[in-house]
Specification:
Layout lengths: L1 H18 L7 H26 L3 H32 L1
Helix pairs in contact: 2-3
């Protein structure tokens, strides 16, 4: 059920980004955002699988190791798009 909700939210976000006139992303912002989202999804999957296998320490470590760079990449893409839209 978690992956269904995540898929619906991501699909709605991508649809809004593609169809809106307010936000225009450049190719490198798309790449940064995509890499960030992929890393975040991998981190969520690893964390939930580690919790199921009763390895909470490994789950937290993988969440930090994989999720933090994904969050940084996604945030950089968002900030770049925001600054470019604010300047225009």
């Amino acid at each position: 059920m978690l992956w269904l909700i995540i898929g619906l939210v991501l699909g709605a976000a991508v649809y809004w980004l593609v169809t809106t006139e307010k936000v225009k992303l450049t190719w490198y912002e798309w790449v940064l955002a995509l890499l960030g989202v992929i890393l975040l999804l991998i981190a969520i999957q690893n964390y939930s699988a580690s919790q199921v296998e009763l390895e909470p320490r490994a789950g937290g470590f993988l969440l930090l190791l994989i999720g933090l760079p994904g969050l940084i990449l996604a945030a950089v893409a968002g900030v770049l798009a925001f600054l470019r839209a604010k300047k225009a």
